[in-house]
Structure formats: structure tokens, C-alpha cells
């Protein structure tokens, strides 16, 4: 396998999913007892579901926003923020998560490709901005002043994720790609590992259990809880012990 040099020329792209926030007390989607076991995906994570029953969708995200607001970053989020600070080359963290735990840990070079619970999107004026507290069918858009037009700034199934040109550019230049706490079932994120491999990157997965065992997509698969294995991995990487 290619040597991963700690140099200004070495570029890292990290993809995270719900698994990295599990130890902060936030449910994943697909694990037993996860969010999809309690809600129907078509009802709460599609534009059609929202237009069918806006109060239900607002309730669903209001509950998640309240939980995320009190959740704390765990050692895995903190290790990635530390890696960004210590890494001399390019670093980009792409998260599928809608919680704000990477920000709480101090990450800066961060894209929320699926949006964030702390954002509003106005269906009337198209404006976006930050939002805190509950949202309802009578909330008023801070930009255009209309009410009944706000939705959470979340990318739902069938919608285009954010920042895709920048993400694909970074993947095309990556030397190291890390996939952490994601089941690899939601596209286009599930394909990022292939993009990075095509660019010649070393690909490494850190997950509770290997998400795509036998597919040959990852050069290294590290199984374990993110809160344990991410800090250890980052430490080894910064000591130049991963190759
Ligand atoms: P997923 O639920 O499909 O998969 C989670 C993965 O994390 C699984 O492979 C599981 O084995 C692993 N995992 C569970 N606990 C772990 C732990 N402690 N340490 C390491 N790995 C662990 O989640 P996904 O792949 O991110 O699915 C994509 C969608 O889920 C995204 O669209 C995202 O917006 C959404 N989501 C986000 C949050 C959040 O913001 N915290 C929560 C739930 C779902």
C-alpha cells in the first residue's frame, strides 16, 4: 500500500455518518432501535412527506434538534478536529450528519452535505440561514417575512446534496480517504470511496462493523466504536505509523 506522508502535499478527505454521533447519545438510522425503526422514511425525509403532513415532519426534526442541542462532542469528533489542526496538508471533513457535533468539537473545514438541523430553508424566497428552537407551520421566514413557508434545511431523499462540486474536487485530489460511522447505503456518499480510489487514495474504514466486507473498497477496515478507534487511529497517523 502507498505510504501516507505527513506533508503539505498530502490531502485527506474524511466522510462521517450517524455512527460517529452514536456515543454522544444520538440515534443512528439503520441500527436496531434506530430512527427508521420508529418512523417511515417517506413520511419524514422526503419533500412529498413534508407537503403531505408538515406538522409531523416539524415534530420529527424539532425532537432531533432538541436532542442535538444538548448532545456533546465525543472523543471521535474531537480527534478529527485535532487532526485537522495538526495536519500540514489539505484536509476536508464531509459529514452526512445533521447534528452540529463536529462544530462543537472545533472542526472548521467541514461540509454538511445533507444540511443541518440548525438551519432553515424558505420555500417561498429560497433563502437559507441559521435557526434555533422549534420550527412550525406558523414560523416566519427571517428573510422575507412570510409565514408557513419554512422547512428545516435538511437534504431529503430525492434532493441534491450540498457542496457536491467541491467534494468531488477534493476526492479527486485525495491521498487518504477515511469513512467513519456510516453504513454506505445512502448515495452519493456511498460512492465517495470509489472516487477516492480512482484518484489513487488509500481508503480506510472505521466502523462498528465493516460495512462492505469483501467488496475490496477499503485498504484497511478497522472495527470498533468510533470513540475508541478514531482517537487511536489519529494518533498513529500523526506519528506516521499508517502506511
Ligand atoms: P446509518 O445509520 O445508515 O449507519 C450508521 C453506521 O454506523 C452503521 O454502519 C453502524 O454499524 C455504525 N455505528 C453505529 N454505532 C457506531 C459507533 N459507536 N462507532 C462507530 N460506528 C458505529 O447512518 P449513515 O450511514 O450516516 O446514513 C446516512 C443518513 O443518516 C444520513 O443521511 C444522515 O443525515 C442520517 N443521520 C444523521 C444523524 C445525525 O446527524 N447524528 C443521525 C441519524 C441519521
Task: Describe what you observe in this structure.
It is a single chain. The chain has 243 residues and is of the alpha/beta class. 32% of the residues lie in helices and 18% in strands. It is built from 9 helices and 9 strands. The strands form 2 sheets. Strands 3-2-1-7-8-9 form a 6-stranded parallel sheet, sandwiched between helices. It has a 3-stranded antiparallel sheet with strand order 5-4-6. The chain binds nicotinamide-adenine-dinucleotide (NAD).
Q: Count of DSSP E strands?
A: 9
**CATH homologous superfamily annotation of the largest domain:** TPP-binding domain
Number of domains: 2
**Strand portion:** 15-25%
Task: Calculate Rg over CA atoms.
Answer: 18 Å
What bound compounds does this protein have?
A: nicotinamide-adenine-dinucleotide
Helix content: 25-40%
What would the average pLDDT be, to the nearest integer? 94
| Second rung of CATH, namely the architecture of the largest domain | 3-Layer(aba) Sandwich
The best one-word shape is elongated
Largest beta sheet: strand ordering: 3-2-1-7-8-9
Count of separate DSSP helical elements: 9
Give a quick account of the main beta sheet: strands, pairing sense, barrel closure: 6 strands, parallel
Order of H and E elements: EHHHHHEHEEEEHEHEEH
CATH topology of the largest domain: Rossmann fold
Question: N-to-C terminal Cα separation, in Å?
Answer: 6 Å
Query: SS-based structural class?
Result: alpha/beta
CATH class of the largest domain: Alpha Beta
User: pLDDT below 50 for ≥5 consecutive residues: which ranges?
Assistant: none
